[in-house]
Write a structure and sequence with these properties.
Blueprint (H helix, E strand, L loop, with lengths): L9 E12 L2 E7 L11 E5 L7 E5 L10 E6 L5 H9 L5 E4 L15 E7 L3 H14 L4 E8 L8 H10 L3 E7 L8 E2 L4 H7 L7 E5 L2 H13 L7 E3 L15 E6 L4 E6 L4 H7 L17 E11 L7 H5 L2 E3 L3 E9 L1
Parallel strand pairs: 7-8, 7-11, 8-9, 9-10, 11-12, 13-17
Antiparallel strand pairs: 1-2, 1-6, 2-5, 3-4, 13-14, 15-16, 15-17
This protein binds FE2/S2 (inorganic) cluster.
The site of FE2/S2 (inorganic) cluster has 12 residues, from loops.
GO molecular function, one term: 2 iron, 2 sulfur cluster binding
Family: In the N-terminal section; belongs to the FAD-binding oxidoreductase type 6 family.
Pfam families: FAD_binding_6, Fer2, NAD_binding_1
Length: 334
């Protein structure tokens, strides 16, 4: 079999698909070869086995413990990748995966005490790591705070209960914005709440995964509480479908010869801005991993959440990954 993309050389057959919540499914894959990965890492998946549409998903299984390689996918209403994987793919189909990627893994950030923070589908790498830690580092003290909308949105609910019962060193706290259901704490995460769950938070490795907005809040709280930056780790990839952080203010994006100008919201990604104005841009993974959306900004104010495929010289010259570049002020592209 020929891989659809050189980035995704690993064919895996779908063994089974199970629904976790109303909008999350787990695909269990049979891997015919050795597939090396660390708990918490992710893989790119070739969507519809095409060369130019790749999406990043966490490997929710745990190496050495899980029977299958598993992907847990939240269906996004407009998500071409998540809709295909959760609604069209069937057992027996073959998916093509990249090698495992990313540094959001407890293996790369060893500690004997963790505070794991997750919101929504961000719990998938956290489960992968917790399952692995209790089996391989049983002396480890792990506190997990998991933000959900309602009890029905808890992914891996039964497994969490079994793991916490069997391994008292793993403590899970569920928290919901608005709920009167038993088993759920009401409210938002705050500095006092983090201190209550983990009074020794500055001694712990903190790992957070959720929406960009959620992680910004968590990072601010952890900084406020004195967690050293070297002990704070967050999942770095986001999809443009999750661009909820764009503001009502707008900026000017200037492009090409002859120069054209477009108004785009402050905070939107360069990729979202280009696509909104139907400007040609290649974007295979939309996750700051494949490098296909490399673009040069000659002047402007922006931040980046991934420069994974760029060299220091390219970054110096103004190259960015459009999917991982947030426009903060007027900008001009080469
Ligand atoms: S689309 Fe892959 S890095 Fe941007």
């Amino acid at each position: 079999m020929t891989p659809p993309s050189p980035l995704c050389p690993n064919p895996m057959q779908v063994h089974s698909i199970q629904q976790e919540t109303a909008d999350v499914w787990t695909l269990n894959l049979i891997n015919p070869d050795v597939y090396l990965y660390q708990p918490g890492q992710f893989a790119l998946v070739s969507i519809r086995n095409s060369e130019d549409t790749l999406r990043a998903y966490t490997l929710s299984s745990s190496p050495g413990l899980s029977r299958f390689i598993s992907l847990s996918v939240r269906r996004l209403p407009e998500g071409s990748g998540s809709n295909w994987l959760t609604q069209e793919v069937k057992p027996g189909d073959v998916l093509w995966l990249s090698d495992a990627q990313g540094d959001f893994s407890c293996v790369q950030h060893p500690s004997d005490r963790y505070l794991m923070l997750a919101a929504g589908c961000g719990v998938t790498p956290i489960m992968s790591m917790c399952r692995w830690l209790v089996a391989n580092r049983p002396q480890c003290d792990i506190r997990v705070i998991y933000n959900v909308r309602t009890l029905a949105d808890v992914i891996f609910a039964d497994e969490w209960q079994d793991l916490c019962t069997a391994h008292p060193q793993l403590q899970l706290t569920l928290i919901a914005k608005q709920s009167t259901q038993s088993g759920l704490l009401n409210g938002r995460i705050s500095a006092p709440f983090l201190q209550q769950v983990a009074p020794d938070i500055t001694e712990r490795v903190v790992m957070a995964c959720g929406s960009e907005l959620y992680m910004q809040q968590i990072e601010q709280l952890c900084t406020q509480l004195g967690v050293p930056a070297s002990r704070f780790h967050k999942e770095q990839f986001h999809t443009s479908a999750e661009q909820s952080d764009a503001s009502n203010e707008s900026l000017t994006l200037r492009i090409g010869q002859p120069l054209r100008e477009f108004r785009v919201p402050v905070g939107s990604t360069l990729l979202a801005a280009l696509e909104a104005h139907k400007l040609p841009v290649l974007a295979a993974c939309r996750a700051g991993v494949c490098g296909s959306c490399k673009t040069r900004i000659v002047a402007g104010h922006y931040t980046t959440s991934s420069t994974m495929t760029l060299t220091p010289a390219e970054i110096e010259q103004g190259y960015v990954l459009a999917c991982s570049c947030q426009l903060q002020g007027d900008a001009t592209l080469a």
